[in-house]
Amino acid sequence: MYTPKKNEPVRIGFYICHCGTNIAGMVDVRAVAKYVATLPNVVVSRDYKYMCSDPGQEMIVQDIIENRLNRIVVAACSPLLHEHTFREATRRGGLNPFFFQMVNIREHDAWVHTDRQLATRKAMALARAAIQRVPLHKPLEIKKVAINPNVLVVGGGIAGIHAALVLANAGKQVYLVERDPTIGGHMAKFDKTFPTLDCAMCVLSPKMAAVGSHPNITLWSYSEVSKVDGFVGNYKVTVRRKPRYVLEDLCTGCQECVEACIYKEPKFRDEFNLGLGKRKPVFLPFPQAIPPIALIDPDTCIELKTGKCKKTCVEACGDRKAIDFKQKEELREITVGTIIVATGFQIFDAKRTPYYGYGIYPNVYNALEVERLINASGPTGGEIILRNGQVPKKVAIIHCVGSRDENTNRWCSRVCCLYSLKLAHLIQEHTQAEIFNFYIDIRTPGKSMEEFYCRIAEEGVNLIRGRVADVYPDPSDGATGRLIVQAEDTMLDCIMKVPVDMVVLSVGLEPHPDSEKVRRLFNMSCSSEGWFLERHPKLAPVSTFTDGIFLAGCCQGPKDIPDSVAQAGAAAAEAFSLIDKGHIEQEPNTAYVVEAECSGCKSCIPLCPYTAISLLPDKKKAYINEALCKGCGTCVAACPSGSIVQNLFEDAEIFNEIDGLLAPTST
Amino acid sequence: MPKPKVAFYWCASCGGCEETVVDLAEDILGVIEKVDIVLWPVAMDFKYKDVEALPDKSIFATLLNGAIRSSEQEHMAHLLRRKSRYLIAYGSCACTGGIPGLANQFEREEILRFNYEDAPTVVNEAKTRPQLVFEEAGRTPHLPELHNVVRSLDQVEQVDYYIPGCPPTPKITKAAVAALLDGRLPPKGTVLSPDVALCEECPRRDSKPSDLSFAGFKRTHQALIDPNLCLLAQGIVCMGPATRQGCGAQCISGNMPCTGCFGGTDRVKDQGAKILSSLCANLTVKDEDAIDTVLEGIPDPVGTFYRYGLAASMLRRKVNLSADQVPSAK
Amino acid sequence: MEYETPATPTNGAWSPRIIAFFCNWCTYTAADLAGVSRMKYASNTRTIRLMCSGRVDPQFILEAFVKGADGVLIGGCHPNDCHYVEGNYKMLRRFRLLRRMLSDMGIAEQRVRLEWISAAEGEKVKNVINDMVQKIQVLGPLSLPEKFAEWDREVTRAEQSVAQSQPPFEKEVAHA
To answer: What is the DSSP secondary-structure string of A430-485?
Structure first.
């Protein structure tokens, strides 16, 4: 590889990309190329239609060889997109890839301005800055950091389960951490899934069992990630394991403790059934829970609250001695190289749309509650029985509750039309009730989904296009809990007031309320809506801005089960690709202390969040551990004697850039 | 072999730099023996005409101290540059503008009015001001014009070497003069003091903790200063980390913080900006209001961080001041 | 709040020149997002990409003004969100004192601005830039290079007079 010597004259090749009309439509690229040709050290100045294409890159390579260029500047799109591409082209021409500087005249210029003259002048200034900066660039080498082969999957829903299985089957050691006492996520609550109407648990249960018994998966349920330290490829994660008061290794899931509990009847709110059913203080979340281990709720268990219980559960457990009221929270530390975040979603709280009556009228349910009613292992044994004991004869299903709504959430939650149609079918099947679906649009994209919609429509479900304005008690029939659903039928152009026995609200998907807190743990960003942010919506939908941390499932945005599984597989594959490579490549933008110049003032040492800076005890000077340095440059800015230098972002380089930006460009 | 000619001149200065030469004590005789002093207004009686009459470059070295803030000082700087082989900026005022540089926070008119009218001890009912030209009894004396802007020597003339300090210590003066006389000169433009910050030679360096963060700042009159502990560790602003060494940490030995008179290192464009960057980065607090409260302990950042270097700093002068041109005396 | 793109005169009349220091992970990405979304905003800013707002040395801000900028904008991640944990706090602390010091030196506080802009806030990039351009348009140009030249007119006169009264002078070139 050719590295120009210090005193060799600088020979810059400058290339400005048209990007079709994306740039050339607003910036006069030829004028910029002509201007740059007049600047010092510029030997070659070209414009080209698509610099990132093969011929575009080849042009750079050839020019380097033919013109003995030793610096390259490309003015095109964002460096976040193609800096790597052009660095590679520079390298292929025989130069150190860091003798390259990229100028953003698309996202930051052509696409955001409307005056050609001003946009062109800005492009000239930006180009000039790069031309002045690049002569100071030094030859640098990419850093390679070894990567730990273990993986952490956060969240045990269908996405987390799938990702964990893919990686575990490949022989990787996977830690699956799930906040709830069982894995399964939302899918475990569903009855049947669209479009095939196959039973959710039948599909999910084998996967859950596989996770539970896989030799390569360490399943920590009822646990949360509390801290993530370390750095890319070597994350030190602290997991907080909450006490079940039941010892995992000893419990067999026989549930005799539940039978024997001092509470003869279940009395307390059953979270799994969304409060529609009851449970005892000691319970198994649901019959197919994985791990099949009971847990005791400290808020309702007499022994844990007062210490004065007969402990019939302990008696029933007998020799196994699996109950331990003294169990404490545990903090466990693990080291992993990659993390897959699959923390899922929460449903929209319909209390925020009180005009639909949720929480006010007993016959208004949200869709997830209805799933539990329909489910054979639910609180009503699979019968759709209202709170007043009746079976509904007329049911309204209201689409887009908490979606596509300026007053609550603006986005479309992707799955609600499909599940609303599914619920229409299932409710009709169970009760022969007349069903009314009130929708804004019917959105059923995807494989076999349109066919599913047609099938439901043909089954006689009433599909009414019109947003429901109000749900209120039937004035003529108050006692039975009947409700009137009032909506405009926009196709028939009339206001409808439909009396129904049951209203089902198709609630949308939302990020978890603590997603802000969670994302900080993993140094991720959130979109403006609160979903975790992917690195690039098209080209990098499962990775984040932090290397080694991936996203899967609804935590990244609402999606159905097939897409969640697909994304989970993608995240697992990308994690695997990283692990297989063995190392992570890091930008060589680290800082270093110039020992001869350092005075040992120690001002820099407390600044580094990665504790990369230490004081050499014998020389009493500061020293930066290159492996730990992440290249933020804070110490460089802080050093009062200017004795720390940051590769790629040296003071002199920035000063030159500032000068170039402000130098007069009018020709 | 004729002795090399040497000149000392003072511009906007306090006389402290001249004191340093005198403070060389016994060594001064050694200096006087080896050189031929052709100009030293504080101590010897050479006239301007004598200097003018010298051939160009005939003075081996001129040590010029004081900032340039009047037309006369500027004139002398140009003249001495012409006549000298080596023009050396001696002391903080010549190197970076020094304390007189702080006048760059005020309009010339404000300064004149305060000194000739508003100051409490001034009696000047006629509000007389110095005139650039005055005719009386057939004679026309001229007075120098006060510049709008205080400048370091190198903002007015080409400087060959810098000897920093307020004043420079006898030690670095001796070393510099010896190097000059022996011909052991570093590249032109060098500051003749090591290019490493003061902390390296500070006797209190080891007492400074490696995890120092500031919860507040105290000024020297607000604390009983512990003579054994790093001043920054006591919450007192010390410019040491941003200041060139070479003085032997004299101020610290006097239980006072460094105030930055040796100027910043070569790697730094603006000494004041750098110490600001370092001190602020290390605060304990994160909330905006809490930060502002802590920073109230530095009520005058310009005076604190640019005590000797305002004229040579990046902004040089308060930028909304005017530069009114008084008609030239000539 | 929506801001209209301020009318930037193309007839050569003065329009603010603002140097922006954007941190790579948040603000620079947000500016890219604004571009991808084809948002339109004033063309007065020129961006320098840094890894973290903590890298912004106060000397850079001074240099921008000295070289002719009328305003300096620094964009970093929101508090608690810095990709490097706390770099943005260091910037905030420096900023509070630097802004006060700049004001003491005659540079209006509105000329230097620190904004927290996350990677998803393309709209905020547009609004902040438009707002800052409007505000600085009202403040007027800072023009430090021109000011320095004006201040230094008082010096060349004396040099000329010495030159005139002396035989031709060969300036010695000082080099480092």
So the answer is: HH--EEEEEES-----STTHHHHHHHHHHTT-EEEES-EEEEEE-TT-GGGT-EEE
Interface chains of chain C (3 or more CB pairs under 8 Å):
A, B
The alpha carbon of residue B291 is apart from the nearest alpha carbon of chain A, in Å, by: 16
| Spatial distance between the Cα atoms of C105 and C123, rounded to a whole number of angstroms | 33
CB contact under 8 A, A641 and B213: no
Query: Which residues of chain A does C5 touch, with a Cβ-Cβ cutoff of 8 Å?
Result: 114
**Residues in contact with B148: Cβ distance below 8 Å, sequence separation at least 6, in sequence order:** B107, B108, B321, B322, B323, B324, C151, C154
> Is B314 part of the contact surface with chain C (CB cutoff 8 Å)?
yes
Cα gap A174→A572, rounded to integer Å:
11
Query: Which residues in chain B touch residue C54, judged by CB atoms under 8 angstroms apart?
Result: 281
Distance CA B155, CA B153 (A): 5
Contact in structure between B255 and B261 (CB atoms under 8 Å): no
Mean pLDDT of C103-122: 95
Which single residue is written with the structure tokens 């800055």?
A129
Q: For C172, which DSSP code?
A: P
Q: B167: cis peptide before it, omega within 30°?
A: yes
Q: How far apart are CA B191 and CA B183, in angstroms?
A: 16
Cα-Cα-Cα-Cα dihedral of A164, A170, A172, A173, to 10°? 50
What are the pLDDT digits (tens) for C68-110? 999 999 999 988 788 888 889 999 999 999 999 999 999 999 9
Rounded distance, CA B164 to CA B173, Å? 9
Report residue B140 as tokens: 């026309």
Asked if A545 and C25 come within 8 Å (Cβ–Cβ), the reply is yes
Q: Residues near A179 by Cβ (< 8 Å), separated by ≥ 6?
A: A155, A222, A223, A224
B324 contacts chain C (CB < 8 A): no
Is C100 close to B301, i.e. CB distance below 8 A?
yes
CA distance B185 to chain C (A): 12
Average pLDDT for A536-552: 88
Q: Which of A516, A634, A639 to mutate to test the interface with C (most CBs of C within 10 A)?
A: A634
Whole-model pTM: value is 0.79
A321-367 per-position pLDDT tens digit: 999 999 999 999 999 999 999 999 999 999 999 999 999 999 999 99
How many residues in total does chain B contain?
330
Q: Which amino acid is at A210?
A: A
**Measured between alpha carbons, how far is residue A448 from residues A187, A197, A413, A460 in Å?**
20, 12, 19, 19
